[in-house]
Amino acid sequence: IGKKEKGKNALRGMLRSFSAAAIQRIIGPWKWDGGFSNDEVANALTTIRARSRDMQKNSEHCAPWLDLFVANVVGDAGFTYIPKPAKKAGQPEVDFDAAKFLKYHFWKWATNPAFADLTGRKTFVAICRLIAENWARDGEGIVVIDRHAQNPYGIALRVIRPDALDETMNGGDAPLGTYIRNGVKVDATTLRPLAYYFRTTREDSSATI
User: Fold this and answer.
1) pLDDT tens digits, residue range 21-32?
2) Which end of the chain has less neighbouring CB within 10 Å, N or C?
3) Burial of 125 by CB count in 10 Å (0-12 exposed, 13-18 middle, 19+ buried)?
C-alpha cells in the first residue's frame, strides 16, 4: 500500500472516531456518563427503586421476568447442602456418618419456619427466594444472621428491606482508615464491609423509611 493510500485509511479512521463523538440533532441530547458516583446513587436510588417496584406491580413483562429470575437462581427446592466433614483434621477422607448427621439437621432447620426465620414465617427456601427477588428488583438483598436465636440450633435469618439501608450516608474517617459508602462502612484499603447503617429494621406501618 502506498503512502497516499495509507493516508486515506488513517483519515477514514479519524473521521470514524470523530463521528462517534459528533453532536447531531438526533443524538445531541445523549449525555456522557463518566460512571456511577456515591452521590449519584444516593440521589437517584430511591426513585429508581420505586419505579422498579411499580414495574413489578403493573408491567406485564417485569413480573414474569422476576419469577423466572428467582426460579433460575433459587428454584423450588432451593440450594443443596453437601457437608464433607473430615474424619481427621487435615485429612481428605470424609466422615460419611457425620455428613449424614449434618445434612439431616440442616434439613430440619431449613424446613421449619420457626427455626430458619427469625419472624417464624418462612422456610430457608422461601427466604432465599425473597432475597433473590429483592436483589433483582431493588439492586440488593439484605439478610441479618441472628446467632442467638431462641431455637434448638441457636441461629435464624431475617430479611431486611433494601430501602431500610441509608444510601444517603457517605463520608470518611481517615484516622481509622474507613469510610462510609452509601450506608455501608468499608475498610479504605480492602473495601471489605465493616458495618451497615439502617434507617430502621421495623416492618410496621409506623416505621420511618
Assistant:
1) 666 777 667 666
2) N
3) middle
